[in-house]
Amino acid sequence: MTAGEVEQVYRAEYAQWKERHDAAVAKYKEHCAKEHDEVVGLGGLHSSAPSARIPPHRQPAPGPLRPPGRPGLVKFYLSLEDT
Predict the structure, then answer these.
(1) What pLDDT is attached to residue 41?
(2) How far is Cα 72 from Cα 46, in angstroms, rounded to an integer?
(3) What is the four-CA torsion angle of 55, 40, 37, 41, rounded to 10 degrees?
């Protein structure tokens, strides 16, 4: 297979994937927007953790699910039994 043929196969497969992706996004976009508005109306996303002993890579931080400026809360519950 030549490089040009590989590129043609890639472009065809990508076009098929993109079509499926766009259809899925369109299908769920309205539903997700309604859920987003409901969550924001209830005060935002709230997370809780059973302990403060969470590795740094697991600690909540602003990101795509809770960017800065969005309502929400993160609470950590401590136990005297934590070692």
Answers:
(1) 87
(2) 5
(3) 150
For 10-20, the pLDDT digits (tens) are 999 999 999 99
Phi-psi domain of 75 (left: phi exceeds 0; alpha: psi -120 through 50; beta: other): beta
Residues 78, 48: contact at Cβ < 8 Å? no
CA atoms within 13 A on the CB side of 38: 6
Does pTM surpass 0.70?
Answer: no
- In order, the DSSP letters of the chain are --HHHHHHHHHHHHHHHHHHHHHHHHHHHHHHHHHHHHHHHTTSEEEEES-S---GGGS--SSSSS-TTS-EEEEE---TT--
